[in-house]
Amino acid sequence: MGKRKAVSPLLASTLYVAIAVFVIALVLTMATPFFQKLRDKAAFENAKQMMSNLNSALKEVVAEGRGSTRLVSVNVRRGVLIVDNESNTIEFRMKTEAPIVARSTMIREGDLIIAEGDDVDVIDNGNVITMRNSYLEVNISKVGTKTNWQEINLSQIIQGVYLVKENTFFDGTVRMRINDVYENGTGYVYAEMYGRGLPRGRAVAHLVVNGTELELVITLPSYADFLIVETKEVE
Q: How far apart (Å, rounded) are the C-alpha atoms in residues 85 and 90?
């Protein structure tokens, strides 16, 4: 006959309580990030509605002229509200792990711009568009306008790339061609948006190459040490 070990009722109860407490702690540990993301999403939706209300109130005041006023309720549950007199914008910023907006993207909903990331500045320097983040500073030729198309050499659009962390300029050669053949076209180069603290910078070359109208887009994402270059035909 095999040996049997007795377990006292007190010890058994202690084990049961310990196991129950461990299970509760495990559930709470797994559930906390989930509830945190739910809370962040709720705070984001609240902020979006608040910004929409502010935008509507500002439009009404402008339309009615001097002396017009509106009372708008502002309730910031999380994040910060920034009124920037220099750029004439109102911003709401919040750090979150919730997948509200894809990384380094922007979405327009009417006058509202919803974006992820804030590491890119895009500056108009006359004939040069400067895009910079924590790793790169890229200078791009601003050629022509929508009503004044000019000759464009694709390999000369990027004037220079500065490596911020290394404190030096990229000394290589930048060559861009369409279908590995065409390097020249006619059109204009512009920035998608100017500003500071943007999720990305985009310079667009709208041009005709060998009879085909297309756009060459140079993108600098937030916190990236690389550029993305894409082309697409204009329909």
A: 9
**Total residues found in the chain within this entry:** 235
The structure's pTM equals 0.61
- pLDDT (tens digit, 9 = 90+) per residue, 92-142? 777 776 666 666 666 777 777 776 767 889 999 999 999 999 999 999 999
Element (H, E) at 67: none
Contact criterion met (CB below 8 Å) for 208 and 187: yes
Do residues 193 and 210 make contact, with C-beta atoms less than 8 angstroms apart? no
CA distances from 178 to 149, 205, 213, 215 (A): 19, 12, 12, 11
The backbone torsions φ and ψ at residue 21, rounded to the nearest 5 degrees and listed phi first, read: -65, -40
Q: Which of 228, 205, 227 is nearest to 157 (CA)?
A: 205
d(CA 183, CA 196): 32
